[in-house]
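Aim 2 progress update. The chain analyzed this quarter is reproduced below.
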Amino acid sequence: MSLQVFLQAHLIGGTDFLAAEPATDEDQLLSFQGRCAWLTLFCEVLPRALLAELKLSRMLLGSASAEQFLLVLTEEDLPRANELLNRAAVAVADLSGDHLRLIWASTEDLGAWPVVRKRLDDALSVFRSAPLSQEGSATAFLPTRDDQKSVSTYFSRFAAGTATASSVGWSYEQPAELEWDGGQYSWALKEQSSLSEEVIVFSRRIAMSDEGQVLTLQQLAERADGRARWGILVGDVDSFDALLRNAGSAEEHIHLSVMFKEFIAGELSLLGTLPDFWRKVTVLYLGGDDFAAMGSWDALLLLARELQRLFEKFAAQNVQGPSGFEGKSISMSLAIAPESSDGIGPVLHTAVSQLKQAKATEPGTFSLFGRSLEWKRLSDAEELKSSLVRLVRDFGYSPQYIYDLTSVYREGSAVRTLRRKAARVDKPWRTYMRLARVIPQSRGKEVNNVRNAVINSLIGKRTSAVKLRPSGRVGLEWARLATGESI
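Predicted structure tokens:
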């Protein structure tokens, strides 16, 4: 009787791969979207292709998502699987310009699942830190493709079929180059999974023009309500790996992987059809526990808030276990492109860097405008933004007032950095007076009510302990963009 073997693979280096610059500037957006689609699909396609080549049942596919998959094989199948993975690893490194590495590990199904899982994790850690320890590592010394223009052309061609293709295919001769509506083996693409047929879930939400063309970066920016700017939103479930490590069985591990993947794909696909998003947001990448989207800055901000609200309900209903962040919260980061820059790579790197910092310091937060904010405080920032916008648009206040209010925050930060005597304490009313001078009173009860609401949003209602609120700075920057001011 054959011994059962678990094989787990990871594709690492995704951020550097997506941010790689194309050969020519005019190919930037198309190549980027092609890379995103390829990265979303490759680890869905490769395990299915392995099973097809080995003539094994698709039921042996445990879980698959962008950048990782888990297979169940037999000892007899392992040598052939390793051979196919070695060919794929070389082809992936070649196609990606050495930005991506495919690593994998296998172990016998002996002992409890937590023990098996730990053996897989330990082996993958070795390969991640010492790439030449992987079986077949001699292929690392083979010459790689030096024609980066042809690489960029492939991803641009791949992007062209993203919106309309009905299937994605794979061929043994070119194990890294996926094909739309072709290939030696192919699988249907659907918005939702189906138990009755073998399909790959691939949500396609692309911001298009009225003529059916993919929007350029400038066109995305111009669809913002306020200042014309575009950005990239990234999100990641907090401590998802820890949640998987706590799974008591392989079945539970697979169930959690599939459940989170379907939630992220399903909700983003549905949200992308709503009026606030469908012409402003392009879903770039969907992973098992993370995602990336690009669009006008205001739509991305609202998308983040709505997705977090849905995730909070989803986690409360489906994630049980000890208290903590494991799979129960989600962190996000929004990076807005500088006005003088059209480069996608730097904006993506900024978004990912901010997300990593937020997750390391305080999981379950939203990083935007250079600050990490608790999700429950985002509504405070939005309330302040709405009041400031109303002062400008309805009551004729100059947008310069918003800039002057941000200087109060800068002044407060500078004061806190100075060494002061313990006896010297800034009186609460001083902060209030600084704000009151910036926003002078006006005639009319309604406008003064809005003015007072702005001040209360910045310092709170407890006059005995006046303190600038962190959400206030986010609300100010939000209002500056909404009224057309530069940040």
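Residues 378-482 form one domain. The chain has 15 helices and 14 strands. These observations will guide the mutagenesis experiments scheduled for the next reporting period.
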